[in-house]
Amino acid sequence: xxxxxxxxxxxxxxxxxxxxxxxxxxxxxxxxxxxxxxxxxxxxxxxxxxxxxxxxxxxxxxxxxxxxxxxxxxxxxxxxxxxxxxxxxxxxxxxxxxxxxxxxxxxxxxxxxxxxxxxxxxxxxxxxxxxxxxxxxxxxxxxxxxxxxxxxxxxxxxxxxxxxxxxxxxxxxxxxxxxxxxxxxxxxxxxxxxxxxxxxxxxxxxxxxxxxxxxxxxxxxxxxxxxxxxxxxxxxxxxxxx
Length: 242
Description:
Layout: H1 2-11, E1 16-20, H2 22-26, H3 50-53, H4 56-61, H5 63-73, H6 83-93, E2 97-102, H7 108-111, E3 117-119, E4 122-129, E5 135-136, H8 138-143, E6 158-162, H9 171-183, E7 186-190, E8 211-214, E9 227-229, H10 233-241
Parallel strand pairs: 1-2, 1-7, 2-3, 7-8, 8-9
Antiparallel strand pairs: 4-5, 4-6
């Protein structure tokens, strides 16, 4: 019954915006942060907790330790797009989906072929010299002979374009995201418990009456949603398209 309702919503929508969190990537075997098996709860060989090692101040003060952790725990080169990524690409091809807003840094939406992806927390695939601004790809970071990748032009440290703790989000990406959400006729939120701000606050900009939440667990926004589906996001989206 709920799936039929969801199918009907998609059929009658022409300006869908999707907002996704870690749950979109866990189905591609990328661990999230907060679940029982997530990065924050697993046994670690590192001296510091992940939220410390992924902070701006740790990056600046312990750059080598940061990169050891980052390369070990934050990059999943073998990960492939799952059903959620593929269905969103189909919806974009149909002209129904106008934008994907993601909290993930893994680039899987682009790998699936989606074009309009707004990355709130950046991407492991983009890296910038902190000194001269030269750009480098992920391969350069992984192939670096030194633990800390250095710029070929000036010798500066090459930093991943990912938003670390203590760093602000890119306001241009935030503003574009807000515009898409405000203008959406349907807003689908999936794979996120909506607890990480300011990203979670995007829901408050949606003024329509077709807010669809897809998440295995309950969220604090469930009571505001037009439709709640507590299941795997890949499974739900695939069933709706099929």
